[in-house]
Design brief:
about 120 residues, alpha+beta, 2,3-Dihydroxybiphenyl 1,2-Dioxygenase, domain 1, 2 domains, 8-stranded mixed beta sheet, globular
Length: about 120
C-alpha cells in the first residue's frame, strides 16, 4: 500500500497562503525552498503541504501533486503502467527525489518515492 506523505498545492502567492494555513489551521513552517517560490508547511501529524507559486493551471497541467511513499519506486511504477496509469515521466532524479510522475484520471500529479532511493 502507498502512504500519502506530501501534497503540493499551486497557489498565486505562497507567502500569503502560508500565513493563512499557519494562522487559521495551526500549521508550522517547515522550510522555505531555495527556489523562492515554495513554502513547506507541516501539520501536527507530520504531513507536509508544499505551497508553490504558479499562475492558474492550464487544461493539461496538474492542479495539485500528491506524493506517495511506496516500498519500491521502480516496481510500483511498472505495476501502475501495467494497469494503464498514464505517466508524465518515468522514474528519474528530480528536485523532489528519485521517482516518476503519474496522472490520475482528472490530471492531478501523483509522485512516488521510497526510502531506498533517498539515500
Amino acid at each position: 500500500m502507498a502512504d500519502l506523505d506530501h501534497l503540493t498545492l499551486f497557489v498565486r502567492d505562497h507567502q500569503r497562503a502560508a500565513r493563512w494555513y499557519v494562522e487559521n489551521l495551526g500549521f508550522e513552517v517547515e522550510f522555505q525552498a531555495p527556489d523562492g517560490a515554495t513554502t513547506a508547511l507541516r501539520d501536527s501529524k507530520d504531513f507536509t503541504i508544499f505551497l508553490t507559486n504558479r499562475p492558474p493551471a492550464g487544461e493539461n497541467e496538474p492542479r495539485c501533486v500528491l506524493y506517495f511513499k511506496v516500498p519500491d519506486v521502480d516496481d510500483e511504477y511498472k505495476r501502475l503502467l501495467a494497469n494503464g496509469v498514464l505517466a508524465a515521466h518515468g522514474p528519474r532524479e528530480t528536485p523532489w527525489g528519485y521517482g516518476p510522475e503519474l496522472r490520475d484520471p482528472d490530471g492531478h500529479g501523483i509522485r512516488l518515492w521510497d526510502a531506498r532511493s533517498l539515500k
